[in-house]
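Teaching assistant here, posting this on the class forum so everyone can see the example we discussed in section. The complex has two components, and the goal was to see what a joint structure prediction looks like when all of them are supplied at once.
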Amino acid sequence: MSEQLTHSASKKAFRKDIPLIDQIPPRKKHILRGLPESELHVEEFLMNIGPQHPSTHGVLRLVVSMEGEVVKSCEPDLGYLHRTFEKISENRTYQQIVPFTDRMDYLGSMNANWGVAAAVEKLASIEVPERAEYIRVIVAELNRIASHLMWMGAFAADIGALTGFVYGFREREMILDMFEEICGSRLTYGYIRVGGVAEDVTPKFIQMVNDFLKILPDRVTDYHDLITGNVIFIERTRGIGAITLDEAISYDITGPMLRACGLPWDLRKEEPYSLYSKFDFNIPAYFNGDCYDRFRVRMDEIMEAAKIVRQALDGLPEGDYKVKKLARNIKPPVGDVYIRQEAPRGEYGVYMESDGSIKPNRVKYRTPSFTNLSILPLAARGWKIADLIAILGSVDIVLGDVDR
Amino acid sequence: MDVILGLLYVVILFSLVAVQVLILVFMERKVSAWIQSRIGPNRVGPWGLLQTTADIIKLITKENIRNIQSDKVIFFLAPILAFVAPFAGFVTIPVAENLGIQDLNMGAVYVFALGSSMVFSVIWAGYGSNNRYALIGAMRSAAQMISYEIPLVTSVLGVFLIAGTLSMREIVALQESGTWYVIYQPLGFILFLVAATAEANRAPFDLPEAESELVAGFHTEYSGMKFAFFFLAEYTEMLVACSLMTVLFLGGWLIPFVDNSQIPWWIHIFVFIFKVYSMIFLMMWFRWTFPRLRVDHLMQFGWKVLLPFALVNLVVTGAVALWLKS
């Protein structure tokens, strides 16, 4: 982007004390002027979508080469939300790492917490009480529901149905209220910690979850009526941004995006961690790999997650919610560990290497948003700009998760 | 004397339209809040009624920013034309039996002609801004308005065939002796409603200003009062479209099953306003329910669905009219 974006009237900048504009010679040329008039001139042009744009879901910048309305190529430019979480994690004790993961995937904080807690527990061979594992499953699945509802709303808004956005928030709000009840926080929980969870669940929380599970099926049916069956919605999403299963696998796509391509791959079933082997649930999968199937996979996953929450809530045992005696500074033996879990957006991996001290020697997060975003240039090529926004929305990126 | 009277009309009309727009913006917010299970504005003034006034004050006092590479004259003219074109359309619309500024014998043609000139302002805004989002928005708008202008006009030709006149006042008067034209022309009415929504750039046809794709479309670069003019224009256009619908299809100021000559004129005004606002509510309902169409679907819908149906409607109406006459 060689063009400099200058603001009006050299006399008037936003900060009037800074002579910002005068140093840049104004380019008097208009984008349409100077083109040959004799023949029909077709030229690709670059368009800069983001980092400030209503539908980039954060601070993503896309450099899009377009021919009219058609996207010829699209290149994501990352790093606007890079906060060096991997490096910071190497300079904190094992327990101190957990709160940083909230800020990575801020729509699936519980799942993000859990990955780190599980990695440290495996590294230091800490046994977690059963009740804590149950609570973890409950909050992680609730967070999955919240994340998918939020996504549903944002996706509907990307397609142009702004009302969907608010509806998605309505049920998400109930889940946030529950999380507020158990940990006092609504976005960055830091609830799942090394050796258990921060606080025990309260009877009020259980009541709230029960109430929520009662109304959820009706609401999801409403959304299917409003969105899934809408002719315009189907026109805008069916077949759009379709990727094949081979492409998805070669790009290391995971989560709902992979399941929309026809492979019911879910770590909760493939490598059951925690208590997932105890529960009865299905892995929804569809076969076209387009935006519409990604939507349907996520909508079905909401109901499957609700099923798991129901079972976990019924089977919640008595006991401790965290390990009673845990050293202030854990010193795991020398070694490394890689934990992978199914976060709302896909496979969330934590690699941790211990050198025997109180801090990890190396930490690496494998975040699903980052790898899933890598397929955007392939999926968006040849589609229109409106489809590009739909495809980007269907990938379900969280920029905190992409840039870390 | 005529000049002074004319100016007086303009001032009165402007203030009326401006107040209407204030009410409409407030209504839009409350309707959207109601549809979205929210509360909507409720802080400024009683029941939040002054929210839009506060917004207008904010817009007036805002700094006017212009892109240094933009085309100065065109950039300046676009918002003015955007507002003036639909505003001037009000001249021929009869609100009650003897209330209306001017009754042209070609009234309908005049309104449609002004409506078509709206496209200039959008293209000027897009071109003048020297911004790619704006340019794409303008191109979309040009394509969209051409595609929808034709079904829009074709769909009302049936009404003119039945009425045999183009004067708005006479069309309403003719509906008093018979029934509303929506009974004779149900297809025409639906087509007109859809095409008018597209013409006014309202969702689901709001492609020129598609927020999630083009930031704000053709008025991305506009701020302050210039932006307010585009805002005003959108609602004015909606008002004109709904007034047209009321006059042509819904019997204007008339109350059904009642001898209208016995009813005082001010009740007629309320009836007219009620009908217009019902149609506007319908448009708002569309906007907050439907997703946005894609640009090629929009074209297909315009040329392959609306236009053929409008033509069939016209031919059938003409044939029936001819048959009844003979």
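For the discussion questions: Chain B has a mean pLDDT of 82. Residues 114 and 306 of chain B are 22 Å apart (CA to CA). Think about how each of these relates to the inputs above.
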